[in-house]
Structures are given as C-alpha cells and as structure tokens.
C-alpha cells in the first residue's frame, strides 16, 4: 500500500518537473520572476491583469507597443527559493514579462491601475469591432 503512495508522489514530482522545465516562471540567472498573468479580449479592448505582490506602484515600468506589453518591476525585498533535497538556492529581485497581445492596440490610450498587488492594464484596440444586427 505504501508503494502505491510512493508511485503517486513520484508521478506528481515528475509532472511538476515537466511543467517547470517547458516554461519556467523564473530565471535564476537574472533573478527575475514571471508574474501570473491573464489576458482577456473584448470587442473593443484587451485587458491584461498581473499579480505583483511585494511591488510598489511607483516602481512599475510598463512599455506598451501595438502588439505587446513589457513589464519590469523590482520587488521590495529579495525572495529566496530553495528546492527540497537539493543544495543551493536562487534569489529573485524583480518581476519581468513580455505579453504578446492577441490584437493590435493603441498604446497612446492605454490605462493602468495598481491596487492590492494587482496590475490591470486596459488597452483599446486600434481597429474596433462592432456588433451588427442579424435580420
């Protein structure tokens, strides 16, 4: 019976290793973390939401182009990660992410709001769709 649990634990560990190796959410060489990000597309805008704990609003650097958004934000304190059973650690000092946008946007009209560790960026599309009635 204990072997059954050992097998399950080994499969879970392998699944996490596969998940993290295909697109890690961090880069230990540069000390950067990738924030959790959600991109939602509406008829006339794109809304990008990012979780940025331990970040101050005035330290957020946001660059918006027609087809992507780039975020850089230093953490207010260093985060240290240690993997169980492995000697060594990684220290992270900032968030960094480039978000490819599903449609072209107008960077001049973009608006960003930061509250309670969550950044929300509203990006108006350059070519607005419109609903038409179906007869």
Quick take:
This protein has 135 residues and is α+β, with helices and mostly antiparallel strands.
Rounded to the nearest angstrom, the radius of gyration is 20 Å
Largest sheet: 5 strands, mixed
Number of DSSP-assigned strands: 9
Strand proportion: 35-45%
Supply the CATH class.
Mainly Beta
* SSE pattern, N- to C-terminal: HEEEEEEEEE
CATH topology: Immunoglobulin-like
Gross geometry: flat
The number of distinct helices, counting runs of at least 4 residues, comes to: 1
Q: What is the domain total for the residues?
A: 1
CATH architecture: Sandwich
Distance between the termini: 65 Å
Instruction: Report the uncertain regions.
Output: none
- Residue share in helices? 10-25%
Structural class determined from secondary elements: alpha+beta
| Major sheet strand order | 1-2-7-6-5
Mean pLDDT: 84
């Amino acid at each position: 019976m204990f072997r059954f649990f050992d097998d399950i634990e080994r499969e879970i560990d392998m699944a996490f290793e596969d998940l993290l190796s295909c697109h890690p959410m961090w880069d230990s060489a540069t000390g950067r973390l990738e924030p959790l990000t959600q991109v939602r597309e509406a008829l006339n805008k794109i809304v990008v939401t990012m979780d940025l704990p331990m970040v101050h609003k005035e330290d957020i650097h946001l660059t918006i182009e027609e087809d992507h958004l780039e975020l850089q934000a230093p953490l207010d304190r260093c985060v240290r990660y240690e993997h169980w059973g492995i000697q060594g650690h990684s220290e992270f000092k900032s968030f960094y992410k480039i978000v490819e946008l599903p449609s072209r946007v107008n960077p001049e009209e973009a608006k960003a709001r930061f509250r309670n560790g969550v950044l929300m960026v509203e990006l108006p599309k350059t070519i607005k769709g419109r609903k038409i009635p179906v007869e």
